[in-house]
Amino acid sequence: MYEAPEAAINPLNKCLTMEPAVDMNLPEELQLLQKTAREFAESELTKAAREMDEREEFNVDVFKKLASLGLAGLTLPEQYGGAGFYESKLANQAACVVLEEVNRVCASTGVTLSVHMSLFSSALNKWGSEELKGRVLPKVATGEWIGAYCLSEAGAGSDAGSLTCAAKKDGNEYVLNGSKLWITSAPYADVYLVMARTSDSHKTRGISAFIVERSRKGVSIGKHEKKMGIRGSSTCEVLFDNCRIPASNLIGEEGKGFTIALDTLDGGRIGISAQAVGIGRACLEDAIAYAKQREQFGRKIAEFQGVQWMICDMAARIDAARLLMYRAATLRDAGQPCAKEAAMAKLYASEAANKAAKDAVQIFGGNGYSKEYNVERYFRDAKITEIYEGTSQIQRIVVSRALLG
Ligand SMILES: Cc1cc2nc3c(=O)[nH]c(=O)nc-3n(C[C@H](O)[C@H](O)[C@H](O)COP(=O)(O)OP(=O)(O)OC[C@H]3O[C@@H](n4cnc5c(N)ncnc54)[C@H](O)[C@@H]3O)c2cc1C
Fold first, then answer.
1. Range list of H helices, 197-334
2. Are residues 269 and 394 in the same domain?
3. What are phi and psi of 28, to 5 degrees?
4. pLDDT at position 8
5. pLDDT band at residue 23, thresholds of 50, 70 and 90?
6. Which of 387, 396, 397, 399 to mutate to test the pocket of ligand 1 (most atoms within 8 A of CB)?
7. Tens of pLDDT along 45-99?
8. How far does residue 156's CA lie from ligand 1's centre (Å)?
9. Which atom, in ligand 1's list, is nearest to the CA of 158?
10. Are residues 396 and 265 in the same domain?
11. Amino acid 25: pLDDT
């Protein structure tokens, strides 16, 4: 029987002490943030993650607790309740640090936070009027309000530019009619960023972006999806029936909504890469711990080369994904174009997370297939990272268009 030499096993031990903060040489303030997020996630989310998944119910209280630590307003300027990362051009990197830690423990809380910060708050902060920002952002920064992002419709997924939800101008108001599908956080979000059609004369230039409070007359929640993974986060249809909003709730100019949606998705895709890196890291850590204690054929399964190579590949892919994620976040923080880099990070990280989850289940053997162990949940949670905020096929289109024109 093959006997693994000591040297072949030792590198695995290094993975256990892997400290991304040190590896990445992050600035001191981000290392402190990472410590806060890690401690919060381990102490508050470990049990909640299992409960949310089993009950298919989001724990709003635990999200509010996370927000009370300042972890939900990281992408915002201090004047609206941010923690100063926006001013030091570290906002997207700070979001990545926290999202990796949160998603490592609970991907349902992770997606809620990613949508709240990277899609809702960032878009309003970048494109909204001072009046609207002053009215909404302080509530969003403290977690008093949760934000959601409404782009997809039944007939408009990858081809989001074909959306039909309509916003008709009527004096000083817009009247919204139509429905949005697959909306993360819909039932417990307080405020939505909604892309709606203001003109039929052009496909994408006929779309505008609006802030819509859920409390407005004419807003209701439709079908709740029963999902494979991220079951703790609610995904629902949002219906607009003659919903009147003030014209001042328009963000950017009329006809700029699709540009806003795509620009916002660049940041969102960085957030989803952080989600994938977090899930992948959880798979790696659990697989290492399990492989070092499970014995078969009279030795730890970590001593078998077949297991070692799966663990090595997981670690290499997750580290590579993290590097791509921070490259995209750094570019976005510097105000530089990053559509290609964000798409590459999301594409690579989501595929790395799925491979890591598949191999983690394999390393756990029969136990990997049981709900007693978390890898079964990681496997179900990882899949969505290849689908939302643009499928892997759409990311490949974005990257190849940037390369080939
Ligand atoms: C759990 C969950 C949460 C979500 N949260 C939100 C949210 O908060 N807000 C929101 O607006 N949306 C949300 N979505 C929607 C999500 O972004 C879409 O599901 C996604 O963009 C894919 O669209 P689709 O489902 O219509 O698939 P389709 O666009 O119908 O795609 C089906 C298949 O065809 C492929 N395909 C499509 N076009 C091409 C092409 N040109 N070339 C090659 N292949 C192609 C796709 O890659 C995919 O494999 C969520 C979805 C889920 C499942």
1. 257-293, 305-333
2. yes
3. -55, -40
4. 34
5. low
6. 387
7. 999 999 999 999 999 999 999 999 999 999 999 999 999 999 999 999 999 999 9
8. 8
9. 29
10. yes
11. 82
Nearest to 193 by CA among 155, 137, 141, 275: 137
- Single out the residue in 146, 175, 202 at which a domain terminates: 146
Q: How far apart are CA 97 and CA 102, in angstroms?
A: 9
Domain, as residue range, for 357: 261-404
Q: Do 81 and 167 fall into the same domain? A: no
Given this model, what pLDDT does residue 32 score? 95
Residues within 6 Å of ligand 1 by CB: 115, 149-152, 157-158, 182-184, 227, 230, 235, 384, 387-391, 393-394
The answer to whether residue 77 is domain-embedded is yes
Tell how far the Cα of 169 is from the centroid of ligand 1, in angstroms: 29
CATH number at residue 321: 1.20.140.10
Is 151 in contact with 180 (CB distance < 8 Å)? yes
What residue's CA is closest to ligand 1, atom 12?
Answer: 152
Task: Kindly give the interhelix angle for 375-383 and 257-293, rounded to the nearest 10 degrees.
Answer: 160
Q: What is the pLDDT of residue 353?
A: 98
* pLDDT of 39 higher than 50: yes
- Read off the CATH number of the domain in which 66 is found: 1.10.540.10
Nearest-atom index, ligand 1, CA of 225 = 1
- CA 390–ligand 1 middle distance (angstroms): 6
